[in-house]
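Quick question, first post here. What does this chain look like in 3D?
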Amino acid sequence: MPQLRHVSALAQAEYAYVSTVEPGTRLVFTAGACPLDVDGRTVAPGDHAAQARQVMANLETTLTAAGARLTDVVKATVYVASAHQPDLVSAWQVVRDAFGDHDPPSTLLGVTVLGYPNQLVEVEAVAAVSVA
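> Answer (accepted):
Ran it through. Tokens below.
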């Protein structure tokens, strides 16, 4: 089971600053989850929050296929195609809500462009699952 740790010597954050993974744990690395429907179409063009909801649903599906859950995530990276902080915050809030009380270390990045047409959000994750 991973341990998420807040660091009192650093600013209060909505996520743990560090996670540790114990021996006897299998690591799961995901590709970036994208806001695509089952037909490969980008959902909700222009809507950061709606795309983030689809991304998190797709991430959860991917983790399930590997025998993991969102609560097993030990590191997440959130990419948002925007130079405007409110767009990043909009996507971030959806991601945070999907994780619930689980607060893995996360990085939020504003980027110029993502790979699919009209894509605004992508999330990649590393999870740790006990092998016992």
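The helical segments are 48-65, 85-99.
The two ends are 10 Å apart (CA to CA).
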